[in-house]
Amino acid sequence: MQDDVKDLEHAKSFWYADWSFPIIVGLLSMGVFAGTSMYVNYGVGAFNEVAIVAMLKAGLTGKSFGPAAAFGASFLFARILEGSLVGILDLGGAILTGVGIGIPAIFLSFGWEAPVKNFPLALLTGLIIGILIGLIIYFVRKFTIGQSNATFGADVMMGAGNETGRFLGPLIIISATAASIPIGIGATVGAALFYAWKKPIPGGAILGAMLMGFFFPIAV
Amino acid sequence: MQIVIILIESIIVGLSVGFAVGVGAARMFNAPTVQAVGAFRTLGEMNSAEGDPAAHFSFGLGFFFNAWASVVGAGAFTQDITHRVIPNWAASILLLKNRNVEETVHNPKKMGIVSGILGALLVPFLNVTSASIPASLQVTAVKVLVPAADTLINMVMPILFWLAAIDAGRRSGLFGTVFGGIAAMIMGNAVPGVVLGILVGKGVDDLGWTRITRVILISTILLFVISGFFRGFDLEMLKSFHLGVPTWLNDMHSAIVPK
Question: d(Cα A167, Cα B82) in Å, to the nearest integer?
């Protein structure tokens, strides 16, 4: 009974339904694209790694927009296909790199400066691009996965995803011990305390490492 | 005056990105029946906090310092703001009141609202503060968290997904192995390939070779071909085998990829 209610809720409500997905991607792209607009105007606010933003910066400082455009566009294309098949659209590849770096670079290389540089226009442009991406995914899903009741191995993927999380704690401690002895001790003690208090160990390892790193800084 | 404009624009940007990130992250826990937007690493890392508010908060905090330093230094937030800080802090706030993850972290409405507020606070804060943060904290975060997260994403995740694919049956094992290897070469990470292998393999196990599974297999292959082309993998491969690159292929690359 409860499952039936949940299924109904999933099918109809904004928060779970497929029809609302384009709106969510639209809002996301709107913000990310406008963030790039802020970066172009003020030098702050791009939602990406320094190395990727540097490709856009190369174009802005008079070099070619080609690398940023090609890199971003190929990411976007690949992730749209993957996202509709897997059920999770990759935020970093599709939106942050594709919409945030690739599309602005393409626009600027064509000399279309207004949609990127004007903030309200950037919001609108991002929104439209995001809704289009969401619609493509909505339709690809509808005509492939949505037509069947098979799980397509979702249980297998979720199982592996859950298992991954368990590795993080030990990995953080190992990498802390490689950083310096005080940081390694901090991470080990923090993790042990958290474990004794029945809390997940990554949190304790990070806090311990940061605390010791503050008092015993390592050279850059 | 410029600072006021930056502040207002940042609030708009933070609100929309934060809200969408929160909804997308909560929907991930309901994928693939619900289409989500996010990342497998976010999913794995959020699971590793096991519904503990302190663990979610401290994980986000480590990356927050890193992101802050990156904004101050280069104006770039790093992808960690959307992948790690906002979702984990939103989860931590929600879990303070109710420790049941299914009613909080997996609920798109609650996650969306809290993440939206967080975004509207975080983005202006990061953009406006040009004062530096203690360098020692930043260095520690970079030296400890970045290598750990890199190993998690580049080694642990591919291997666990790969083993899961192999254990799930002969078809998903075979497709997972082939696509995983190709994805590691073309995309730099095997996880998307292994996931697609599981998808195709289990899809065929459940449904047989129907129109749907054929469409999925063909689009998967197309995905590899096209992303390989855009990343110049075809050229790299020909060079690695000491073969010449045909002129028409070079011309095609320069025609399609803008210079």
Answer: 22
Residue A39 has pLDDT above 50, yes or no: yes
Residue numbers of the domain that contains A93: 2-147
* Four-CA torsion B43, B45, B49, B55, nearest 10 degrees: -130
With respect to residue A219, please indicate whether it lies within any of the assigned structural domains: no
Amino acid code (one letter) for B77? F
Residue A181 has pLDDT above 80, yes or no: yes
Chain B residues whose beta carbon lies within 8 Å of the beta carbon of residue A195: none
* ipTM exceeding cut-off 0.90 for this assembly: no
Segment A73-104, tens digit of pLDDT: 767 877 787 788 778 888 988 899 889 998 99
Nearest residue in A to B217, CA atom: A85
Scanning A66-118, the segments in alpha helix (DSSP H) are: 66-86, 103-109, 114-117
- B200: nearest CA in chain A? A152
- Same structural domain, B21 and B116: yes
- Check CB contact of A16 with chain B, cutoff 8 Å: yes
To the nearest whole angstrom, how far is the Cα of B178 from the nearest Cα of chain A? 16
Residues B129, B161: one domain?
A: no
| Alpha-carbon distances, residue B184 vs A74, A89, A206, B151, B213 (angstroms) | 16, 19, 29, 14, 23
